[in-house]
Amino acid sequence: MGGSRVYVGVDVHKNFSFVCVMKENGETILEEKVRTEELEKFLEKIENKTIILEPTTTAINLARKLRKNNQVLLSHPYKTKLIAESKKKTDKVDAKVLADLARTNFLPTAYLPPDEIMELREIIRERIRLKKLSTSTKNRIHSILAKNGIKYEGNLFNSEGREFLYSLNNKWIDHYLRILSSIENEIKEIDKEVRQKCLENEETMLLTTIPGIGFFSALPIYAEIGNINRFPNSKKLCSYAGLVPSVRQSGNKTITGKITKEGNRLLRWVLVQCAFVAIRNDERFRKFYERIKRKKGTQKAIVATARKLLTVVYAVLKNKNPYIGYQAYYGEECTPVTNWAKV
Predict the structure, then answer these.
(1) Distance between CA atoms of residues 54 and 108, nearest Å
(2) What is the domain partition of the chain in residue ranges?
(3) 83 to each of 20, 80, 93, 97, how far by Cα in Å?
(4) Whole-model pTM?
(5) Helix, strand, or coil (residue 300)
(6) What is the mean pLDDT of residues 188-204?
(7) How many Å apart are CA 338 and CA 231, to the nearest integer?
């Protein structure tokens, strides 16, 4: 296929995918079901193309390969759904909608990070998966002890606690301790890599100057944000993290509610954890937290602190300047903070 530009909508699934090829004038010239493992080779035959994919795990991996020699767009899942809502929901329709929206410049696009950022995200996600496995294994040991009526006062998983566990000579506890030891060794190896990646990266080292943010939080924050310049201001970044209040309007009345929780869940979770550390180690964050807590309670106060922390993250990355107490930068135009009480 050659000639003028064509738009290739691809609905990717694990085993089979559906491809729709559409001309600039809206004429559909090809609709075909293709085995996903053969999809890359199939798309190579189509010339002068823009490929449009939905951001599933399989599709993103495919997009990373295809973008080396092709123009590739990722559709924004929620916004695309709002625009192209249809009662007839099939893979064929999905692929055609993607091609049609891209052809008419109505496609809401999602961010496709460079390979460097994708690799950092994979490291972070693997560490999170291993920590969940570690926690699950520890819970299994607790469950075995409870079932056998065995109690232990103290930390079961420090050196003394593990000696106690081994002294029980329980084959299942020994089994899970071996699994736990293996998982912890893998986590240690990843932690070394995380630390090295942080030391090699200017942005993550800048982030570690902010109260509450260390090596193991700086890397996921940087990896989930990606290029800071894609956000025109700190409010857009906070919206991306789902740390802005929902808004409902009726006539002249505007009602703000709980945070939207839309957007990047991992970034939001990391910032909340960092906020707990920040209020313990930095007077300005602590005063801000206490002021909100008196008015709105603990939960809203910590979320508000996480949002404030993210605005500082935005300014530090935007200006490439470290956080230095009262001279930290804040706000859309990144002006110095002189009065935190008004922020």
Answers:
(1) 11
(2) 6-110, 115-200, 207-342
(3) 19, 5, 14, 10
(4) 0.80
(5) helix
(6) 94
(7) 24
Question: Would you call 208 exposed, middle or buried from its count of C-beta atoms within 10 A (0-12, 13-18, 19+)?
Answer: middle
Q: Which CATH superfamily is domain 6-110 in?
A: Ribonuclease H-like superfamily/Ribonuclease H (3.30.420.10)
Q: How far apart are CA 97 and CA 264, in angstroms?
A: 25
Cα(138)–Cα(44) distance, rounded to whole angstroms?
A: 49
Chain centroid offset of residue 224 CA:
5
Residue 330 has pLDDT above 50, yes or no: no
For residue 30, give the 3-state DSSP assignment.
strand
Query: Per-residue pLDDT tens for 78-109?
Result: 777 655 555 444 555 689 999 999 999 988 88
pLDDT in tens, 5-15: 999 999 998 89
Worst-scoring range by mean pLDDT, 209-218, 243-252, 320-329? 243-252
Report the candidate in 233, 141, 129, 225 with the shortest Cα–Cα distance to residue 183.
129
Note the pLDDT of residue 303: 94
Residue 88, token pair as written in the block:
């007839």
Distances (CA, A) of 170 to 48, 141, 145, 177: 65, 10, 10, 11
Could you give the CA distance from residue 46 to residue 202 in angstroms, rounded to a whole number?
40
Question: Which residue, 317, 227, 303, is CA-closest to 260?
Answer: 303
What tokens does 202 get? 């200017």
